[in-house]
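thread: overnight batch results

M.L. [08:02]
morning all. the overnight job finished for the chain we discussed friday. pasting input first so we're all looking at the same thing
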Amino acid sequence: MENLRFLRKSKNLKQSEIAKIINISQQQYGKYESNQSEPAKTTIIKLADFFNVSTDEILDREKTNIKITTQDKQTLINAIEIIKKITKN
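M.L. [08:03]
and the structure it wrote out:
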């Protein structure tokens, strides 16, 4: 379940934090990320709800699309402008 690791890291969370949120042990959550165990249907739904993605994304059946906020877009635009100024000199 490669997407689980990606989703968790995109929110800057530890395995133990996700495990606590969905009421499982950190060890069990770690097994999901490392494909040593497959979560129950109810756990897959909890994970999808928490990450605001489809269950297909949790199950690696669909690519994960990170939603970029307006603030994120503006930060990227500002960074690009700074890089342009630096490289002109």
